[in-house]
């Protein structure tokens, strides 16, 4: 019989596995423990039993069955719920991870596998010198998006060796705090103002970063090398359902990498997840702007976002120009000093004007003037069983509404119809070559969307009315300070579209591979010489830009596309018998017919009262103003991803420049975390 003292101790055996590199030392240890032993004490007992002299400060216990870390070292085993059948691994919290960046370069670095992904991404961005880390996240490629690539790999005889940039010696990635001055607004500009390449002197303030000048160049400069063969091997979405697969693999920002099944040396994608790019500054954002440009470039080449042939040629021209600029970068660097002097002179002249108060009268005029547009436009209403009805009316745009009358003389009376544009969808319908300047308005009504087209006579008229419609859809009027910049942005985009008919170069004399700059659809449609000639025509309109301006213009053109910023998911709305596509954008949700691709209904975040998730049935429910409520289940991804998207965009809308670039991480997790 056993003595009572054997039971009185309440000890029990706990098997621990240690992740270490010492060959002659056992990896499994059986310790006798009690339930009131705290986690820190368990660590101490284990280390004393191993008798290995090394730094164990980065080690923690990983509970395999529960898929969780035991990071609260003051908690007892009873409080944690650890019993004799628990499998605990004593393993480093920071492990190697391969990240594929938007420019398709792969970097290898140490990342915390125990902190929430939101914090891990922030640390990664500090290593890579990317500001505004909250706009990015980690994406795990799903099986569907890898199938095509794997199929191609089976046919290839030669093994593909990937060029990996190793950044594993970073103090940040080893768990040490980053230099607090890394993102100081007074730091030296990291962009050469002329060539757009990173200035060599800026590496000196990366005292805690593994980025050498060569590595920084790899991240901040682009060398397009996407042949048609390379494009053919990559996943290209053909339908909305295919596009939904691209967004299925976003990691949960409120959980750690290890909790989500990510293993050491796995490969993830680092991508811009939220399409609200705050405070893009060429002086400090060399890597950020380049990676953003690259993400836009690949989205267009792989047709993840739709664009017209005319727009595709503009994007191709900027890319071709980018390549030619890179070859001249050494010459451009010689004029850096002159450019810096010009910047100082410009700043001084701006300061002088401000101090003299030269623009005060204009400001007062803007405040007292009531914004209004009045023009003759053509109204087009699609009809199901006949041709479109096109008729000219006198239109007046005031506040956020458009009213139209039979003619100018009858404008004092009641309008034929008044269209409230708040919450509507505004889509450009433009073909510069054909002198077509149209605005497509999808106005929410009780049973769906009311489709209306406005036709303008010229570029200037189109830019003014289009800018007014865009602002009105967001609930803003032409009195808003962003109206004139929006007009200028539209005009500059139209100018790029307005290709000159006279090409400055002979296509045969230009060393260009046009297939590298357009999607496969156009390489099949046109011969190489035809593409070269058309790209050169578009090239003339951007020939005076600096490299940085070309990248920013590319990003701006990308932002002007109708589908920009939409992330798609396949959902089933409550009460519906068929699947629909839900488009999530920075300011709205759009219900889209999966078969036709037509928008059915739009809901603005500004009208949202609350949203919640029923985690048992995985259903997202949202309430809007005017007693409008919707509920849906997500079929193409976990509903947590959509929940985080909505909360994330609302979080990003709270940012302001006076926050000194500090983030309220607690608020982010309140808005996106949820209670599963």
Write the layout of secondary structure elements.
Layout: H1 4-8, E1 12-18, E2 28-33, H2 39-50, E3 59-63, E4 68-70, H3 77-80, E5 88-92, E6 94-100, E7 106-112, H4 117-128, E8 136-139, H5 143-155, E9 164-166, H6 213-220, H7 228-233, H8 240-246, E10 267-272, H9 286-301, H10 309-327, H11 329-333, H12 336-356, H13 360-368, E11 372-381, E12 389-398, E13 401-405, E14 417-420, E15 425-431, E16 436-445, E17 448-456, H14 459-473, H15 483-497, H16 520-525, H17 528-539, H18 547-559, E18 567-573, E19 580-584, E20 588-592, E21 599-604, E22 608-614, E23 619-624, E24 628-634, H19 639-652, H20 665-672
Parallel strand pairs: 1-5, 6-10, 7-9
Antiparallel strand pairs: 1-2, 3-4, 3-5, 6-7, 8-10, 11-12, 11-17, 12-13, 13-14, 15-16, 16-17, 18-19, 18-24, 19-20, 20-21, 22-23, 23-24
Helix pairs in contact: 9-18, 10-17, 10-18, 14-15, 19-20
Distance between the termini: 48 Å
As a percent range, the share of helical residues equals 25-40%
Which stretches are poorly predicted, pLDDT < 50 over at least 5 residues? Answer: 1-8, 154-161, 171-208, 330-343, 358-368, 499-510
Instruction: State which percent range the strand residues make up.
Output: 15-25%
Main β-sheet, in a few words? 7 strands, antiparallel
The named CATH superfamily of one domain: Pleckstrin-homology domain (PH domain)/Phosphotyrosine-binding domain (PTB)
Number of helical elements: 20
Strand order of the largest sheet: 14-13-12-11-17-16-15
CATH-defined topology of one domain = PH-domain like
Structural class: alpha+beta
Look at the structure and give the CATH class of one domain: Mainly Beta
Strand tally: 24
Just name the CATH architecture of one domain. Roll
Shape: globular
What is the overall pLDDT average?
80
Family: Belongs to the kindlin family.
InterPro entries: Band_41_domain (IPR019749), FERM_2 (IPR035963), FERM_central (IPR019748), FERM_CS (IPR019747), Kindlin/fermitin (IPR037843), Kindlin_2_N (IPR040790), PH-like_dom_sf (IPR011993), PH_domain (IPR001849)
Subcellular location: Cell junction; Cell projection
GO cellular component, one term: cell projection
């Amino acid at each position: 019989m056993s003595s009572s003292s054997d039971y009185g101790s309440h000890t029990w055996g706990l098997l621990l596995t240690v992740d270490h590199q010492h060959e002659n030392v056992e990896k499994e240890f059986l310790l006798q423990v009690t339930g009131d032993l705290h986690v820190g004490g368990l660590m101490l007992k284990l280390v004393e039993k191993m008798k290995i002299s090394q730094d164990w400060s980065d080690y923690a216990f990983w509970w395999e069955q529960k898929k969780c870390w035991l990071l609260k070292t003051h908690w007892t085993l009873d409080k944690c719920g650890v019993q004799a059948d628990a499998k605990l691994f004593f393993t480093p919290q920071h492990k190697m991870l391969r990240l594929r960046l938007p420019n398709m370069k792969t970097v290898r670095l140490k990342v915390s596998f125990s902190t929430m992904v939101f914090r891990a991404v922030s640390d990664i961005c500090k290593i890579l010198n990317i500001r505004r880390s909250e706009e990015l996240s980690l994406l795990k490629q799903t099986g569907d998006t890898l199938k095509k690539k794997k199929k191609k790999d089976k046919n290839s005889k030669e093994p593909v060796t990937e060029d990996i940039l190793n950044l594993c010696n970073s103090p940040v990635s080893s768990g040490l705090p980053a230099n607090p001055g890394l993102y100081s607004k007074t730091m030296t500009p990291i962009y050469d103002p002329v060539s757009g390449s990173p200035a060599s002197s800026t590496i000196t303030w990366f005292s805690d970063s593994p980025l050498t000048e060569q590595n920084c160049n790899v991240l901040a400069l682009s060398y397009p090398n996407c042949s048609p063969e390379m494009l053919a091997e990559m996943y290209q979405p053909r339908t909305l359902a295919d596009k939904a697969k691209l967004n299925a693999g976003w990691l949960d920002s409120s959980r750690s990498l290890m909790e989500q099944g990510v293993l050491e040396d796995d490969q993830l994608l680092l991508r811009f997840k939220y399409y609200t790019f705050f405070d893009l500054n060429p002086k400090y954002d060399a890597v950020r702007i380049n990676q953003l440009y690259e993400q836009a470039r690949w989205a267009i080449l792989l047709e993840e976002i739709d664009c017209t042939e005319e727009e595709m040629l503009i994007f191709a021209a900027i890319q071709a120009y980018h390549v030619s600029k890179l070859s001249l970068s050494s010459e451009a660097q010689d004029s850096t000093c002159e450019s810096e002097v010009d910047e100082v002179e410009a700043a001084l002249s701006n300061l002088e004007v401000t101090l003299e108060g030269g623009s005060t009268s204009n400001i007062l005029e803007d405040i007292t003037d009531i914004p209004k547009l009045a023009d003759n436009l053509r109204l087009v209403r699609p009809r199901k069983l006949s041709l479109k009805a096109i008729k000219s009316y006198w239109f007046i745009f005031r506040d956020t509404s458009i009213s139209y009358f039979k003619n100018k003389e009858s404008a004092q009376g009641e309008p034929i119809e008044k269209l409230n544009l708040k919450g509507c969808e505004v889509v450009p319908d433009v073909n510069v070559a054909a002198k077509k300047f149209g605005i497509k308005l999808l106005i929410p009504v009780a049973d769906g969307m009311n489709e209306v087209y406005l036709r303008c006579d010229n570029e200037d008229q189109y830019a003014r009315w289009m800018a007014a419609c865009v602002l009105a859809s967001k609930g803003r009027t032409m009195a808003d300070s962003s109206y004139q910049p929006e007009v200028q942005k539209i005009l500059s985009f139209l100018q790029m579209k307005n290709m000159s008919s006279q090409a400055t170069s002979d296509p045969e004399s230009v060393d260009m591979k046009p297939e590298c700059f357009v999607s496969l659809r156009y390489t099949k449609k046109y011969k190489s010489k035809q593409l070269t000639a058309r790209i050169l025509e578009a090239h003339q309109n951007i020939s005076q830009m600096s490299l940085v301006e070309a990248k920013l213009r590319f990003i701006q053109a990308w932002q002007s596309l109708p589908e920009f910023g939409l992330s798609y998911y396949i959902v089933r709305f409550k009460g519906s018998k068929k699947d629909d596509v839900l488009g999530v954008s920075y300011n709205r949700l759009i219900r889209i017919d999966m078969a036709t691709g037509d928008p059915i209904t739009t809901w603005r975040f500004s009208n949202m009262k609350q949203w919640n998730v029923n985690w048992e049935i995985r259903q997202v429910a949202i309430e809007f103003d005017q007693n409008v409520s919707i509920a849906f289940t997500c079929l193409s991804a976990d509903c947590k991803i959509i929940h985080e998207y909505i909360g994330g965009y609302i979080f990003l809308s709270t940012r302001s420049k006076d926050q000194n670039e500090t983030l309220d991480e607690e608020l982010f997790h309140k808005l996106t975390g949820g209670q599963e």
